[in-house]
Design a protein that fits this description.
This protein is α/β, with parallel strands linked by helices and 350 residues long. It has twelve helices and ten strands. The protein folds into two domains: 9-273, Aldolase class I (TIM Barrel, Alpha-Beta Barrel), CATH 3.20.20; 282-348, Type Iii Antifreeze Protein Isoform Hplc 12 (Alpha-Beta Complex), CATH 3.90.1210.10. Strands 3-2-1-8-7-6-5-4 form an eight-stranded parallel beta sheet. The chain has a two-stranded antiparallel ribbon with strand order 9-10. The radius of gyration is 31 Å and the shape is elongated.
């Protein structure tokens, strides 16, 4: 099951960065979003991602529901979430058309049923947030639209992931990319747990695996690079054109320079990974002959003598009879004199 015909497929999660850019530059939210799309395109990113929701459809306004969480005021908590809720169907449709005009894929993660429905008009691939991994009614609502799905798995158990996949399979045959993710912002590098990518691949061999990266972008972009090398073909990371931009997620976002570093890493990986099937390479052909060993005479063997096991040795170079064929030499008669250390060849024995 392949959703995107490119490896790796890189997604820039614009998230709330358009909001902060608009605030600082005194431009419209739509212009800020388009600017970030331009930046993503220019550095070679394949797709951009937003979030679509109405705050009142996502958050409960009952403070008692948050007992045990560090939330003192539901109003301020709601307002912080609501302020980023500035785009509706019209804006997202314009952004989708803008992306398509530049050959980019437009993505947006719906967080409620209404958003999932209106996105269907211009969305080719859905992403299901980690926050909805156990929201089976919502997962099946999206799956019934019969479009590929990126399923984020942050903070999920394997049972929860399997239940989500089964929920999709029960109502649809859509392709799914299972996205390894850590639901911690930012994710400490020690918590990235990239080996979980291999665990997902083993548990879901028929599905493609991806990775949503919430770690701080390291100097050499090794986290994202290692994720790809572990088998994550779809890679998503928050994106900004300026990490100094005031934003809740700028500390774990990548910028265009980071993307260039990552792409350079991928080119190098493709060079060093090479082919999968083990076989001798052309560059090894000389060394095979120089460094391997052949059967040689361990003493002067005279013509007519029968060669005993004690009469042979194994030495470089590998231009003669290979050692594993020693049984084909022992017991044979020398048909000419064979000097010590010289190669024993089949034309010298009979």
């Amino acid at each position: 099951m392949i959703v995107f015909n490119k490896k790796p497929f890189l997604i820039a999660d614009i998230s709330i960065n358009f909001y902060n850019l608009a605030q600082e530059e005194k431009i419209s939210y739509l212009d800020a979003a388009k600017y970030l799309i331009d930046e993503a395109r220019d550095c070679g990113i394949d797709a951009v991602m937003f979030q679509s929701y109405l705050a009142e459809n996502v958050l409960s306004r009952d403070l008692s529901a948050y007992e045990g969480l560090d939330i003192d005021s539901i109003n301020s908590y709601f307002d912080d979430f609501k302020k980023y809720d500035v785009f509706g169907v019209g804006e997202y449709k314009l952004l989708a058309e803008y992306c398509h005009s530049m050959g980019m894929v437009f993505l947006s993660t719906p967080l409620d049923f209404d958003s999932a429905d209106y996105l269907d008009e211009f969305l080719d691939v859905y992403q299901i947030s980690s926050s909805d991994i156990t929201n089976i009614p919502f997962i099946q609502h999206i799956a019934k639209k019969n479009k590929p799905i990126l399923l984020s798995t942050g903070a999920a158990t394997m049972i929860e992931i399997k239940n989500a996949i089964k929920a999709i399979e029960d109502v649809s045959t859509v392709d799914v990319v299972i996205m390894h993710s850590i639901l911690s912002f930012p994710t400490d590098h020690r918590d990235a747990n990239l080996l979980m990518i291999k665990d997902l691949a083993q548990n879901f061999p028929e599905y493609e695996i991806g990775y949503s990266d919430h770690t701080q972008a390291d100097d050499d972009m090794m986290v994202l690079t290692a994720a790809f090398n572990h088998g994550a073909n779809v890679l998503e990371k928050h994106f900004t054109f300026d990490k100094n931009l005031t934003s809740d997620d700028s500390c774990y976002a990548m910028d265009p320079d980071d993307v260039i570093k990552f792409k350079r890493n991928i080119l190098f990986l493709s060079k060093i990974n090479g082919r999968m099937n083990k076989q001798p390479l052309i560059c090894e052909s000389y060394a095979r002959k120089e460094f391997r060993k052949s059967i040689v005479a361990d003493r002067d063997i005279m013509k007519g003598e029968i060669i005993d096991e004690s009469d042979i040795a194994f030495k470089r170079p590998g231009m003669g009879i290979e050692p594993f064929r020693a049984d084909e030499v022992i017991g044979k008669t020398a048909t000419e004199d064979i000097l010590k250390d010289s190669l024993i060849t089949f034309d010298k024995i009979g």
